[in-house]
Amino acid sequence: MSDILIGGVPFLALSHRDGRFIRLAGLFAFARREPSGIYHVLHLEMTEVIARDAGPAHGRWGWALSVGMNTLLVHGFGQPAILTQDAPLDWETVTWHPEARVNFLDDEDVSEADLSPLLAGDRARKGR
């Protein structure tokens, strides 16, 4: 099971500059890993190609660096969430920056409260 969950969706942590290697559609989050090991989400976005959009040309890159971004969290579409039967659909192991933004498919920003139906909708449940 992944240790990093956002809205019940598993994420993999990479160095913030390694998004250029991920040539998949999926979700990415600019994040700051705290000394405690908790990830603090600064920006979450859905994209057709992570390598194209999760880098220095992104509009939130400079701001994210200024507030301590040191990690890129990625989820490639099709990656199953391996969770126990009783795990809540909106399970999160991250915290959120007060100015974090969420962008899905060129929609206007979505509030954190709106994440669970978008992210957890059709994920596989394993480990029952």
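The record above closes out task 2.4. Task 2.5 opens with a second protein, given below.
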Amino acid sequence: MTKSATEKKRVRRAPSSTGRDLAENQPKQPGSKKDVYQLFAEKVRDNKQLKSKWAIMQETRVEYFRGKDFVVFLKDHLEVKEILGPDKDCEAEDIINTLLGRNLIIRCDRAVKTVRPGKKKLSSWPVHLEIHNEQVFSKDVAFFAWTFMKRRALWQTILSFLWPLVALAMCLFPVYPYQVKIVVLYSCAGALLFIVTILLIRAAIFGALFIILGKRIWFFPNINAEETTFRELVRFWPKKDEGEAPKWTSRLFYAIVSVLVILLLRHHAPDEAARARYQTKVSNIIDEMLDWSPKLAISGMLEKQQPVVNATEKGHPTDGTSSKVESDEVEKEHLVDDENVT
């Protein structure tokens, strides 16, 4: 009987206090040599073929996977098990129990166990998790979260050093040359216009299909999601609607609300003259921003200081003029003294 088989029979109970910190589950590495199961866990976690999601457990974001997906992953990728050496022939159940025993993963359970209103079944990937009481492999629906810190990729390290430079470049935008300002301005405006267009088209298609067909179908990816993968960003075909069909009363209500909103927007829309004024105002602001430069700022400061200098000169004449006035006054005093003497 192998070591993994003996560890499979152990049943670890989670502590009664649910406030246990996940940092206590960090694997202990004896010496400088990594354990083969630690290397195996890092290899599996970095592999994108094992589907995983992010969730909240004890106010901490964790990455987790499903037990049935792990079994299928090992069957399709036998080369990953070569890292285990003598234990490479073990079953997925034995490997899971060994990872649990070494605190590389922890078994979780969904925090919300009731079906939400409007849904037929529980979510396949819950957003909130809690620690399961029995820390063993199960053939039923079981979730397992990684407890160790994921190794940072090289591009992430490089990107962390580049972010301060990007922030500095954004602050120096006013001193850029005119051509660079044009490129940056139109690039940012194009990206913003693309995002707004995608959101509007996505919402319009969803609303039309919801009101007409009673289907909740989201085309295009959700670019507002906090956590998403590149595969989801390039997904344009909608997922299967798992909820029950909405009632006709709710569809009629949303149809009436949509019509009222459209009529309200049309009634308060600006006329041609107002749109022309807004366009001129925005155009002037953009031109002023693009034409600004340090040289113009310095010349403007000098022009503001010029009237002050002129006023100072008028109040205080030059040295030559003042000396001439003083000499004239002295001569007048001497003449007055001579007249008094005579």
